[in-house]
Amino acid sequence: MTDKPPKNTKDQIAADTPAKPTRRSILAFGLIAAGTIGAAGYFLWPAVRQSSLTSAEGTSQIAISMSGFSPNVISARVGQKISLQLINKDNSLHKDGGGWHQFAIDDLGIDFKVPPLQTSEVSFTVDAPGTYDFYCGICCGGSANPYMHGKLVVEA
């Protein structure tokens, strides 16, 4: 049997220790992580922002901004007076629509407009059950923008 002397050279020590990450690999990892988190947020945002509001006899608030309606689902009963406080969160510096927003339901003939950074109190009654689409057709791509829509659910 041949006894070999133990290796204590610098090469052996360097081979036994893991390599330090380079700036390039750290930057690449950071960019991939940020991209993954950003993509997840982009695809999950519609599900996360989905909220609901059950209208009572009191006034309910709906905030409207370039990112949509909040809440974007309203529930009510047939014949119930629906009172809303429409709050426009955007200012007049927006080039798209001048900061104005709209709450429109074509099937019910409802069309309310709210000036920038203003609040409008509106009331209406729905006499037929159903699910009605409301939208803002003034800015942000108008009614073609999926974020500028919501649902009014009226039950018997």
Tally of individual helices? 2
Extract low-pLDDT stretches.
47-56
Major sheet characteristics: 4 strands, mixed
CATH architecture of the largest domain: Sandwich
> Please, what is the CATH homologous superfamily of the largest domain?
Cupredoxins -  blue copper proteins
Strand arrangement in the largest pleated sheet: 1-4-10-9
Shape verdict: elongated
Order of H and E elements = HHEEEEEEEEEE
Helical amount: 10-25%
User: How many discrete domains?
Assistant: 2
State the end-to-end distance: 94 Å
Number of strands: 10
The Cα radius of gyration reads 28 Å
Structural class: alpha/beta
Proportion of strand residues: 35-45%
Assign the CATH class of the largest domain. Answer: Mainly Beta
CATH fold label of the largest domain: Immunoglobulin-like
**Average pLDDT level:** 82
